[in-house]
């Protein structure tokens, strides 16, 4: 098991990232509003499978990398901090687009909905960078079990958080879109809150010494 403080910090980052608009959120919201909640949840099943693929690939790759490269943590730490700062800027930059500004999507079959959810997630750079740059920094190579085991626990944590939040969003997308449509101040508050959280986590990560 990872250290409790590392696990909690990773869970917080996972929550911040899933609440920051990205390809998965935009697709699920648009699909739910255009074709209904059931379509959104089927699409979410494909997204969840994409998370599992990333988790397994990253866990095995990270295990090999950390055993081969002594200073891999520092490289990944800096890269992860820079990416969190990028996400923070994307959240607060002028003219940022709300994911609840719906794209018009045609109705698709359940099989295609699942496949498109999977492909959308596998091609999502935010998820790729999270698993390759962020996850390794919350693993303790000594005294807390195998690197592979810790990677799987952290990956599973991210999947549970992301699927839970995205599922809730898919079920309530239409209501949220109507609510935010007439209250632009709420959209601004949400963007700045997420941007501040991600920037703070990036600074903490950048200043943290290598374990």
List the helices and strands and how they pair.
Layout (H helix, E strand, L loop, with lengths): L3 H15 L4 H13 L1 H32 L3 H21 L17 H13 L2 H10 L12 H35 L2 H24 L4
Helix pairs in contact: 1-7, 2-3, 2-7, 3-5, 3-6, 3-7, 4-6, 4-8
Q: Can you offer a commentary on this structure?
A:
Helix 1 (4-18) runs parallel beside helix 7 (147-181), helix 2 packs antiparallel against helix 3 and helix 3 runs antiparallel to helix 7. It is built from 8 helices and no strands. By secondary structure, it is mostly helical. The protein has helices spanning 4-18, 23-35, 37-68, 72-92, 110-122, 125-134, 147-181, 184-207. The two termini are 16 Å apart. The mean pLDDT is 76. The protein has one domain (4-207).
């Amino acid at each position: 098991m990872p250290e409790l403080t590392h696990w909690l910090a990773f869970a917080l980052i996972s929550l911040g990232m899933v609440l920051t608009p990205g390809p998965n959120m935009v697709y699920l919201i648009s699909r739910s509003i255009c074709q209904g909640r059931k379509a959104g949840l089927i699409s979410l099943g494909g997204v969840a499978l994409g998370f599992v693929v990333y988790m397994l690939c990253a866990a095995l790759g990270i295990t090999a990398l950390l055993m081969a490269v002594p200073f891999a943590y520092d490289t990944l730490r800096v890269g992860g901090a820079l990416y969190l700062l990028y996400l923070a800027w994307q959240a607060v930059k002028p003219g940022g687009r709300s994911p609840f500004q719906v794209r018009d999507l045609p109705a698709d079959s359940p099989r295609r909905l699942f496949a498109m959810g999977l492909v959308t997630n596998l091609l999502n750079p935010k998820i790729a960078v999270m698993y390759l740059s962020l996850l390794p920094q919350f693993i303790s190579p000594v005294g807390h079990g195998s690197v592979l085991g810790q990677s799987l626990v952290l990956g599973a944590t991210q999947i549970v958080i992301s699927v839970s939040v995205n599922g809730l969003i898919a079920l309530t997308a239409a209501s949220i879109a109507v609510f935010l449509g007439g209250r632009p101040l709420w959209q601004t508050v949400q963007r700045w809150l997420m941007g501040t959280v991600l920037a703070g986590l990036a600074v903490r990560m950048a200043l943290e010494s290598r374990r």
